[in-house]
Write a structure and sequence with these properties.
The structure is a single chain. The chain is built from 4 helices and 9 strands; from the N terminus they run ββαααβαββββββ. By secondary structure, it is an alpha+beta fold. Strands 3, 4, 5, 6, 7, 8 and 9 form a 7-stranded antiparallel β-sheet that branches. A two-stranded antiparallel ribbon has the order 1-2. A hairpin with a 5-residue loop joins strand 1 and strand 2. The longest helix has 14 residues. It starts with a strand and ends with a strand.
């Protein structure tokens, strides 16, 4: 069983969160966070179990490139979470999709880019636990940085004590719960 930590955002909403075990397991960790917030309980699976499931489907998780969102979709479907992957063409469409789809017990996984080099995107998966369409604010359940509350997309600047905090950008790729 994966023990989750219960956290509360500034609006009093409670979420389950989990810290990824390695630098490249944000995808499997995001699956566990999403599952825990859909079912409001700690998952029986762990990162290793998610990785084993991932290997059953095309483009599985690996230690070099991490995870791929369509693979995570299949993993979550196997974990009894019906979902849809969407790639939003622009920031407006991304905001609209999150505002429409993210609801209590229906978080989303989003792919954010650390940087782009030689046409390859180096990225990170996070879970969007809440989306406020009027205020344009989002509760991000980040498996690396923890609970984050952000406003204004497409950029994401996690609160951290690191000397050179990262700047990430939402790519438009999201996985939403049906």
């Amino acid at each position: 069983m994966t023990a989750m930590t219960v956290v509360t955002d500034s609006k009093g909403k409670k979420f389950r969160i989990y810290k990824q075990k390695t630098q490249v397991t944000c995808g499997p960790a995001s699956c566990l966070i999403l599952w825990a917030n859909v079912y409001n309980k700690d998952p029986v699976a762990d990162e290793g179990g998610v990785i084993v499931l991932s290997k059953m489907f095309p483009k599985p998780w690996n230690m070099v490139t991490g995870a791929e969102i369509n693979n995570l979709s299949r993993v979550l479907a196997n974990m009894a979470v019906r979902n849809t992957v969407t790639v939003c063409a622009n920031v407006h469409d991304l905001r609209q999709a999150l505002h429409r789809k993210v609801q209590p017990n229906k978080p989303a996984i989003a792919f954010v880019a650390w940087e782009e080099t030689s046409g390859a995107v180096l990225g990170h998966f996070v879970v969007i636990g809440a989306a406020d369409g009027i205020a344009d604010t989002y509760t991000v359940l980040d498996p690396y940085y923890g609970l984050q509350e952000i406003g204004g997309m497409p950029f994401y600047y996690p609160y951290t004590t690191e000397p050179n905090p990262p700047s990430l950008k939402f790519t438009g790729a999201i996985l939403t719960v049906d």
